Amino acid sequence: MGSDSPTHPRRYDRYGRYILREQRLLFILIGIAIATAVFTVIPSTTTVLDPTTNSYTISKSSHLTTTNYKKSFNSYSNGFESSVNLGGKIPLGLKRKGLRIVVTGGAGFVGSHLVDRLIARGDSVIVVDNFFTGNKDNVQHHFGNPRFELIRHDVVEPLLLEVDQIYHLACPASPVHYKFNPVKTIKTNVVGTLNMLGLAKRVGARFLLTSTSEVYGDPLQHPQVETYWGNVNPIGVRSCYDEGKRTAETLTMDYHRGAGVEVRIARIFNTYGPRMCIDDGRVVSNFVAQALRKEPLTVYGDGKQTRSFQFVSDLVEGLMRLMEGEHVGPFNLGNPGEFTMLELAQVVQETIDPNAKIEFRPNTEDDPHKRKPDITKAKELLGWKPKVSLRKGLPMMVSDFRQRIFGDQKNPGATTTTDSSTTA
Prior knowledge:
By secondary structure, the chain is of the alpha/beta class. It is built from twelve helices and 15 strands. The chain has a seven-stranded parallel sheet, with helices on both faces. It has a two-stranded antiparallel sheet with strand order 1-2. The chain has a two-stranded parallel sheet with strand order 9-12.
């Protein structure tokens, strides 16, 4: 059979390609006609802002073909308008949407009390802790709660999470612990803070740094205001913590100015309360544990050094107000009530054992002589001030310590509080 035969398959292929090529315009015209017919039947819609409700709604044309279609479309659009409210207020009766929050160091003293408050508020909380000073017992009452997660992780290593807020508390806060491995302490303050700020930048989270009154060093100004730059020994035995926190504040502000990260900075003064480490070397926990064990209360130096002590619940309230507010800080969070070490020892004697003895020992290196916060800024901008006095808060801490030291048998009526936390 010749190549020109009408039954040759190649000839049919050429006929098909010819028809498709020449009739392409016709197909396009048919498509336009179909589209025109469809858009003539289906109503056009426009999204407009209703100034009376401050919400976006859909306005639609009325040229519909059938009554049934009109009812169906109206039902759909009304449902859409009621469910979409961009920028409007939450209607009355609806609960606040819980946030997804990470708390580094959340198994520690302050962190665990903060977690309690956030969970009670309805948020979902992820605790990140390497358990160097933290303890699972502090948060075990949240195990099984679907809004609680616990991750064993060191913030010196990067971490990827999707969160709305970051409370960065991770770092040993007592001299006994932060002097144990000073290089690790400063890495936690610097590299750990860098990692958490990087996470905040990536996911658009608000970041709160818990700094410390130690950034003032051995202050030459009394009381200390946030504008005071401090008097810090950069090469002393406490420098890993003091200078580490100062650098963490620097990094926080650099991320805020340079990368647009929403940040908050709290400078925490001495705090006490339930769940403090019993033997962490801080003065309140030292005195309470020693008095309960019938040991002498050890006062370093002449006992005339002053400190200000806030109860943990007051601190947690201040941290949450700072995070939810509109001010970057730094803010001093502490109780301006000032006590000498001897006065504190006497309060502990009154609370636990009037016969407890006081023993003087040589003072430690770089120990600040005076420490008292000026909280005027926190009062004015956060509406915050401490409410729990030392004589009211100390018995709650004593009850917790007694139960942990001796067990329930020695103190069957002991109770613990789940209010907030602190640093020293």
